[in-house]
Design brief:
Elements lengths: L7 E5 L4 H12 L3 E6 L2 H15 L5 E5 L5 H15 L4 E4 L18 H21 L4 E6 L23 H25 L3 E6 L8 H4 L7 H9 L7 H4 L1 H8 L8 E3 L11 E2 L9 H14 L3 H4 L8
Helix pairs in contact: 3-4, 4-5, 5-10
Length: 308
């Protein structure tokens, strides 16, 4: 990676797994990294682990933010802008996958839609003033599941099947659509924000499966089939995200993942954008609905289209 000294980065879901490795990588290149986490106790533990490796506390700060709460996102963004002013790198990494218990967010959205997509949409919109202070980059982390996703505009909340694999896949497809549309709007409106999508392939040591669908779920069974000796650890799975965030070879609107078989692991290369993410009309419609649902029309300069 190039030197990131003097740059400020925010990484969501950075207390463990791929988010932690991404934060560690950015910190090791000299960036000041804000761990945007729901659980600040775990965040402080992650900060200590980074300090143990880098011996520099000043490179990492912990700030509380819950992507399941639009109010929490608004508070985080206001505090961040007041404290730092400008933001160079935003990594929209955090996510849920078929969690047990409540399947709705604080604001009444289906848990995957509300956390994985709308939460990051709102966060990016709220941080746009900081991102536009100087040339910046936003990386939104999707998943191989995006290839199976369908945006159900007639029922985005999937009222009869919240918390399912289909809901997760929809949210991951939404991540790709958002990444591409953000870059298009930035170019059109001269925001100076490069937006890139990325996915980690499969990973043997991520909390999203252990804390979500459980041992008998499809994702867990896939992990068992491939085995931890086959699947890459989190530090390897973070490579596409770090590349998308820092490489001078990357351009806005692109999508990156592992270059190996089925994009499961090994290195980094441009990924095939899901067919359902190639429609400008779909991306625009999702953007405008998302802006309305998150009350960020003023920040995103969108118009009202569609209903949930």
């Amino acid at each position: 990676m190039p030197s990131l000294k003097g740059k400020v980065a925010v990484v969501t879901g950075s207390n463990s797994g791929i988010g932690f490795e991404t934060a560690l990588g950015l910190s090791s290149a000299g960036a000041t990294v804000i761990l945007a986490v729901r659980n600040t106790t775990k965040g402080e533990e992650a900060k200590r682990r980074i300090y143990d490796k880098l011996k520099n506390h000043s490179l990492v700060q912990v700030m509380e933010m819950d992507l399941c709460s639009l109010d929490s996102i608004k508070k985080f963004s206001s505090v961040f802008i007041e404290k730092f002013g400008a933001l160079d790198i935003l990594i929209n990494n955090a996510g849920v996958m078929m969690p047990s218990g409540n399947r709705l967010t604080e604001d009444g959205f289906e848990i995957h839609l509300g956390t994985n997509h709308l939460g990051h949409f709102a966060l990016t919109a709220r941080l746009l003033p900081a991102l536009r202070k100087r040339p910046s980059r936003v990386v939104t982390v999707s998943s191989l599941a995006a290839q199976q996703g369908i945006i159900h505009f007639e029922d985005l909340n999937l009222k009869n099947r919240p918390g399912t694999w289909g809901a997760y896949a929809q949210s991951k497809l939404a991540n790709v659509l958002f990444a591409i549309e953000l870059n298009r709007r930035s170019e059109e409106k001269h925001w100076g924000v490069e937006s890139i999508g990325a996915h980690p392939g499969l990973c043997s040591s991520t909390e999203i499966v252990r804390n979500g669908p459980g041992e008998n779920s499809l994702p867990s069974r896939l992990q068992n089939i491939f085995g931890n000796f086959t699947l890459p650890p989190a530090e390897e799975s973070a490579i596409p995200i770090l590349y998308a965030a820092t490489s001078n070879e990357v351009k806005g609107g692109e999508y990156y993942g592992p270059e190996g078989f089925w994009e499961i692991r090994d290195g980094v290369a441009k990924s095939k954008i899901p067919k359902r993410a190639s429609s400008k009309l779909v991306a625009e419609r999702l953007w405008n609905i998302s802006a309305k649902l998150t009350d960020t029309q003023h920040a995103t300069e969108s118009v009202r289209l569609g209903t949930i």
